[in-house]
TrEMBL record:
<dbReference type="InterPro" id="IPR051122">
    <property type="entry name" value="SDR_DHRS6-like"/>
</dbReference>
<dbReference type="InterPro" id="IPR036291">
    <property type="entry name" value="NAD(P)-bd_dom_sf"/>
</dbReference>
<dbReference type="Pfam" id="PF13561">
    <property type="entry name" value="adh_short_C2"/>
</dbReference>
<comment type="similarity">
    <text>Belongs to the short-chain dehydrogenases/reductases (SDR) family.</text>
</comment>
<protein>
    <submittedName>
        <fullName>SDR family oxidoreductase</fullName>
    </submittedName>
</protein>
<keyword id="KW-0560">Oxidoreductase</keyword>
<dbReference type="InterPro" id="IPR002347">
    <property type="entry name" value="SDR_fam"/>
</dbReference>
<dbReference type="GO" id="GO:0016491">
    <property type="term" value="F:oxidoreductase activity"/>
</dbReference>
Amino acid sequence: MTSRRVALVSDGAGYVGPHLARALAAADHDIVVGDPEDGLVESLQSLGAAVEVVERTRFLVEPDASERLAAAALDRFGRIDAAAAFTGKIVTGRFLSSSLDDLRTAVVGCVEAPYNFLRAVVPVMVEQEGGGQVLVFTSAAGARVTPGAPLYSTARAGATMLVRNVAAEVAGRDVQVNALGTNFIDFDGFVKASRADTPEGRERVEAQVPMGRLGGLEELAHFALPYLDGRSRFTTGQYVSFAGGWA
């Protein structure tokens, strides 16, 4: 058991996971982290956090990944105060060229994965004293029509509605569930997928963003922190975009 809040971060090796884990540790949280990158555990411990590592959890489409994360938190710390998950399977291409298999891939990656995570952590928070906070990272593509990725956009919108429905169901139990949708974030996955890995490619991509630049992972972590760190507990069932004005 611990007197500090306990935060669960599903992926400690990619995207904003390492940045968010460090921000939470600096905000007086012990950390349960899936598949941490080299040096992350030591970094978290230097910030005063006790750390529990869970291996092979990056792919939340596998139901036992979320279940093992939740079980590890309960076994080590006895509770889960905050939980963040990063989900999604990008499926591109026009609707007229798509197949049912393409749709199923999008739904599994973008809807089933967050379902598995929510199903693992929300019941824990409902039953424990003090409730908890969940933040599901989705995509700003679910907030607007997205030419070239209609199935992905549709599945992401479904994930947002799942979050809102779960939030409504458990709002009276002091459990917050919110969604954060991103796009145009400066990390390897997006840069390569959008062919922004050359000066010309980056200029082309940044021209699509009203703010004229890509978003940073550090600033994304700080934007997400108030939805998880226990200091603001009066909003739930919300979706917010972090996409430089694109959505």
